[in-house]
Design goal:
Length: about 300
């Protein structure tokens, strides 16, 4: 019997990497090498119990990265801008991983990328957490690594945190402050990423070299609010906030997220049909909301 292919999963205790590691383990056809900075955290211990090989690596340490990738056939790579708010650091980490995957001859890398907005707009708009990933996408290809980029939309899960509705001035209703105007916003549950990546890894010839824009739903902010209202029994409305008003909200990342929404208003390619082909069980927003409505009890 042939040995199972080893897939290294970066960020394995986070939202994206955790979904990918779980899906690979559920598939049963792979040896999962779960990469994390802290092998003692509960999520890492659960992965070990589920059958993953859990290894420690610091993305700022090339020796660590090489040790974590040695012997792997493929890898899922994700970096986290929001950990440090530093585009240059994210680029350095991504390029470091790319160099190591090239040197070790990995057969397929699935990279959690995004568009290089600054390049696409001729410098008119910068979205740092997109642009860095876009530069790393370009670098993987420039050095000849067989890579597929999966570009996620806004997570539905962000509606539990960053974009959680807030009480309106009337004290009774709630505002959903997402500056999209009358333009559809793509979304999906980050928990549905894993099966997408498994499908991509199964068909390298079909997907190497491709950028796959993911989405399971395209809705107006008012439609998101209506679905949330029906699920929670609370009245949630589109706040109809402008991009400039959003940028001036003052929380860390407000400017960055405002720029992101400005790019979303340019309608980047996100393919619902392909996403559902890659993961037929991926949830639409209404289904996700029904599963998560209890999280809004204390709204």
């Amino acid at each position: 019997m042939a040995a199972k292919r080893v897939v290294a999963v970066f960020g394995s205790t986070g939202a994206q990497g955790g979904s990918v590691a779980a899906a690979l383990l559920a598939n049963g056809g792979y040896t999962v090498r779960a990469i994390t900075r802290d092998t003692t955290k509960p999520a890492a211990l659960k992965l070990k119990e589920a059958g993953a090989e859990v290894v420690c690596a610091d993305l700022d340490n090339e020796t660590n990265v090489e040790s974590a990738l040695t012997g792997a056939d493929s890898a899922f790579v994700v970096t986290n801008f929001w950990e440090h708010f530093n585009k240059d650091k994210e680029i350095e980490q991504g390029k470091r991983i790319a160099d190591v995957t090239k040197r070790l001859g990995l057969k397929h890398v699935v990279y959690s990328g995004l568009e290089n907005v600054k390049k696409l707009t001729g410098g008119k708009l910068e979205v740092l957490h997109f642009d860095g990933k876009g530069e790393v996408e370009e670098y993987f290809r420039a050095i000849g690594v067989p890579m597929t980029s999966v570009r996620l939309p806004s997570y539905f899960e962000n509606l539990l945190t960053f974009f959680r509705p807030t009480k309106a001035s009337d004290g009774e209703t709630y505002n959903l402050a997402i500056p999209m105007g009358d333009i559809l916003l793509d979304g999906m549950s980050v928990s549905d990423l894993g099966p997408v990546v498994v499908s991509v890894l199964k068909c390298p010839a079909k997907y190497i070299g491709k950028d796959i824009g993911l989405s399971t739903d395209k809705l107006l902010v008012a439609q998101y609010a209506d679905i949330m209202s029906k699920a929670t029994g609370k009245t949630i409305k589109d706040a109809k906030i402008s991009l400039d008003a959003y940028r001036s909200l003052g929380f860390p990342g407000a400017q960055e997220l405002g720029n992101m929404f400005e790019f979303y208003q340019m309608k980047p390619v996100r393919n619902v049909d392909l996403t559902l082909e890659l993961n037929p069980k991926a949830k639409k927003f209404q289904e996700w909301m029904q599963q998560n409505k209890d999280a809004y009890k204390d709204l």
